Amino acid sequence: MSLDSLRAGFTRLAVGCAILAGFLLLAAVAVTTASVLRGAFGRPILGDSEIVEMLLGVAIALCMPLCEMKGAHVVVDFFTQKLPARGIAGLDAVMRAIAALVVAVLAWRLAIGGYNMWDRERDTMFLQLPFWWGYAAAALGMMAWSLCAGFVAIEGLLRPRRAA
């Protein structure tokens, strides 16, 4: 498999995650809007914050793989701007590999947290929504992010620096 076909596959994964995140954000907006409108008549939606918190947490995790694939993270290059392109690419690859490792640890801990929430049957206060749903979905987003960051790190070592 070539790097180009791998990049295309990881990009499709990242775009799919981002599209799902967009739907979750639309759902959060709809719940918030409905609660505010109902609140104007003294009948806000019970547990609206529980729904919105879960949706936003998962949406953020699902947006990060596309951010990684597009190279859209903030880069501070004050000390490295005079390095040759290959040196910058090497530093970028090392930092993305570290990011992939850190995010993999976060995904692992989210998965364990989700299992613990499922095992203890922990639910939200008002709606009794199982917490493990949010943990599991966020863990999947973080795993996708870790895979994308790992790919981009390897790609950065094998190819010249890509323009963001």
From TrEMBL:
It holds the Pfam family DctQ. This is TRAP transporter small permease protein. The chain crosses the membrane at residues 54-72, 93-112, 132-158. Part of the tripartite ATP-independent periplasmic (TRAP) transport system. It comes from the Bacteria. The keyword Plastid does not apply. Belongs to the TRAP transporter small permease family. The complex comprises the extracytoplasmic solute receptor protein and the two transmembrane proteins. Keywords: Cell inner membrane, Cell membrane, Membrane, Transmembrane, Transmembrane helix, Transport. It is a multi-pass membrane protein. The keyword Transport applies. It is found in: Cell inner membrane; Cell membrane. Residues 29-148 form the Tripartite ATP-independent periplasmic transporters DctQ component domain.
